[in-house]
Amino acid sequence: KTALVCADTFRAGAFDQLKQNATKARIPFYGSYTESDPLVIAVDGVETFRKDNFELIVVDTSG
């Protein structure tokens, strides 16, 4: 199982673009409109998907 985490808080529209593509591909997605710290988002997303036994968790960052 694969999942995506959007930890790109720098690029405008990154969250919406990744969410839209994940939805089209039917891949579970995690991100936050309110959290500004990418590390917090990445850790929360990975922990969330690990609890659900996802094997591959891709974290998208601004780098």
TrEMBL record:
Q: Where is the SRP54-type proteins GTP-binding domain?
A: 1-63
| Gene Ontology CC terms | cytosol; signal recognition particle, endoplasmic reticulum targeting
Q: Which organism is it from?
A: Rotaria magnacalcarata
Record's protein name: SRP54-type proteins GTP-binding domain-containing protein
Which Gene Ontology MF annotations are present?
A: 7S RNA binding; endoplasmic reticulum signal peptide binding; GTP binding; GTPase activity
This protein's UniProt keywords: GTP-binding, Nucleotide-binding
**What Pfam families is this protein classified in?**
SRP54 (PF00448)
Q: Which Gene3D superfamilies does this one have? A: P-loop containing nucleotide triphosphate hydrolases (3.40.50.300)
